[in-house]
Amino acid sequence: MSKLDALLITPPSRLEVYQKELANKYAAIEPPVWSSLIAKYLIKRNFNVKILDAEAEFLTHKQTAERIVKENPTLAIYMVYGQQPSASTQCMPGSNKVCNYVNELSNNDILSIVVGTHASALPRQTLENDPYNFVCQGEGPITIEKLINNIKSSKPSISQIEGLWFKDKKTGEIVGNKRSEMFQNLDENLSGQAWDLLDMSKYKAHNWHTFHDLKSRNKYASLQTSLGCPFKCSFCCINAPFERNAIRFWSPKHIIKELEFLVNEHGICNIKIPDEMFVLNPKQVNGICDEILKRGLGDKLNFWAYARIDTLNDDEMLKKMNKSGFRWLGIGIESSSKHVRDGVTKGRFANYDIEKIVKKVRDLGFYVGANYIFGLPDDDESSMRETLDMALNINSEWANFYSAMAYPGSQLYPLAKEKKWRLPDDPGGPGWIGYSQHGYDTLPLRTEKIKASKVLDFRDKAFDEYFKNSKYLDMIKSTFGENTKQHIEEMTNHKIKRRHHDHDVEY
After folding, report:
1. Domain that includes residue 148, residue range
2. What is the value of pTM for the model shown?
3. How confident is the model over 133-152, as pLDDT tens digits?
4. Is the N end or the C end of the chain the one with fewer CB atoms within 10 Å?
């Protein structure tokens, strides 16, 4: 077989990002969506490609590096994405460790590029401080294709490769080429995920996604149906890899082919739609549902997908979704305060609508995973408490409680720099791992009125208060049964360790 052209690598990050018990028992193991999309793109252009998913194989950093050196690819491609759109930054330390090991073991003989939301947001800083030969700013497929061809060329020249950042060999100066244009026809240009390069038995759903049958967690996949987002929430960095705020769709007919393959070839029933906003375009959503219903797949499936309060107005569409196997909606509520939401450009729905719309959605047959953020710039103790009280009153089947983070690529990042609020990447800080919500070194954003450590403490206490609440546990038992209730009780017995508690400091 010819030399391996491209090795797409998911570095190990889960243990640091989630801490040991949470990582091993409760966290999902996500299929690498972007790796599989780019792999399929390269395969169609006759490249020899493999995917190395160190997370799914439970490899250490050194074991991952040893595998990379053994494969000896023309280009090692570090795909640094997390389990949700804002999670790229916290995975950078794990990727850096692996790349440093590879450089040491190979005597710097294996060329490397890093791809992901974080690298796209901070390409210069990444190239200055991290161990890669190249940085990709953008989606990646065209940049990677042209770079591999260039490396294999007898007359290499990288100055015209769109989306590529590199150090000039003569001057040492950092050079950033213009961005690659975004694909417009996704069916044609990104024609699917390379499922055959993955061992689908190694992936595991979020625990709540399978509350109805916790033993089915390993029948899991993640299927992308669109790219990008038209909204501009200031706490979100989703659009860092893209040249503008926009959303592009794969056609329903393309999506159903991917879906049928997962169901028929792998017996997969639990499917995450990782699109930043799935419930948005009624024509697209209805088209996908129609294809599912034509094939009689609705009863076999357990989808979850993201929505906003203000995208849940079309009741007929929602009914069709539920009939098509959409069981869970992840709804971005963020804060109970319209003033706080307005401060992050997410205040287009009035306070009284939130509980009413969530109730409507649940009455239509959906389970709800509600998303809340504590410590947004206009938050104080009172507004955070109001948000928690609203969450307790809504009492949805799942709730994600986040501390606000000024992720690189979000509008909050330059705001925090301007205000001189302490960030994980500041001198003396924990580094990129500080952007992990569940890490030991988590360092969230402070607000005008609350210290960062107080925001984090509030978030952790809110999690306990919500999931130990008798009203919640009774609802879970009534909805999913005693086993699921016991599972949640076991989960809440686990305590996340935080550095500032061990060292008795505030910041």
Report:
1. 6-176
2. 0.94
3. 999 999 899 999 999 999 99
4. N
